[in-house]
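Design a sequence for this backbone.
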């Protein structure tokens, strides 16, 4: 959460041979908290009809990694048609909430091509606490989600199938960042993610910081969003960052501070 994963998913989705869903929430539907309504609304945003969404879920038991994998296999042809990408050969998804289903992490972490997005925790903290659509308990919960995410994925950080993508590198040098991403996914180089074409169903990308929802045209990368230091935080926020051993370890691992 707050690490630029929506921006990255849009840039992957812009590749001619890839589709990257932006939080389909299928993982949170088949595993706790079983968020059926949220998944339905997200997939409507990707162009599917309600009957199709229900049919794709029909007969798939909860707590099943096989059901999760089968959903993608069955959804792929529909999404290729709806998003007008008949030649897409890669279907991906992004979610900050995999930590809620440890069995799913254990199943996919060793063998699927994964990208782990990271950002300076000081920027994540500042972003959460500056939100105007959440109260204090909700903000605290979102920060705890970040900490739980670290604990869930830390054992897998050094695996060869896991590419680390820093938000700061993405906005400062998007060409180099996306070259690494496409190579990791076995895709040919492409600069289409910089082109001003109209994306299908632009609201599926969730945040209008990456896409103009009215036109579907991408917005320019903003390097200023990557600049942050201790002086940009309150004393209480600095204490929250530097007093937490897990956060300090994260910052050291990914070159922050």
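Sequence:
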């Amino acid at each position: 959460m707050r690490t630029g994963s929506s921006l990255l998913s849009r840039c992957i989705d812009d590749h001619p041979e890839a589709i990257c869903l932006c939080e389909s929430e299928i993982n949170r539907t088949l595993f706790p908290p079983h968020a059926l309504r949220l998944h339905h609304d997200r997939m409507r945003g990707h162009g599917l009809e309600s009957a199709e969404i229900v049919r794709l879920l029909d007969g798939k038991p909860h707590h099943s990694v096989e059901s999760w994998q089968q959903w993608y296999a069955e959804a792929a042809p529909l999404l290729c048609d709806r998003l007008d990408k008949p030649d897409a050969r890669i279907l991906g998804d992004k979610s900050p909430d995999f930590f809620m289903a440890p069995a799913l992490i254990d199943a996919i972490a060793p063998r699927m091509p994964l990208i782990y997005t990271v950002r300076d925790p000081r920027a994540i903290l500042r972003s959460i606490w500056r939100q105007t659509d959440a109260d204090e308990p909700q903000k605290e919960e979102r920060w705890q989600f970040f900490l739980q995410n670290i604990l869930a994925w830390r054992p897998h950080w050094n695996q060869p199938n896991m590419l680390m993508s820093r938000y700061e590198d993405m906005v400062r040098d998007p060409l180099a960042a996306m070259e690494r991403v496409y190579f990791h996914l076995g895709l040919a180089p492409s600069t289409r993610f910089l082109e001003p074409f109209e994306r299908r169903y632009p609201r599926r990308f969730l945040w209008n910081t990456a896409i103009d929802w009215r036109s579907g045209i991408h917005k320019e990368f903003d390097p200023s969003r990557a600049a942050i230091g201790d002086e940009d935080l309150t004393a209480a926020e600095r204490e929250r960052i530097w007093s937490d051993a897990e956060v300090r370890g994260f910052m050291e691992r990914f070159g922050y501070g």
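Residues 65-82 form the longest helix (18 residues).
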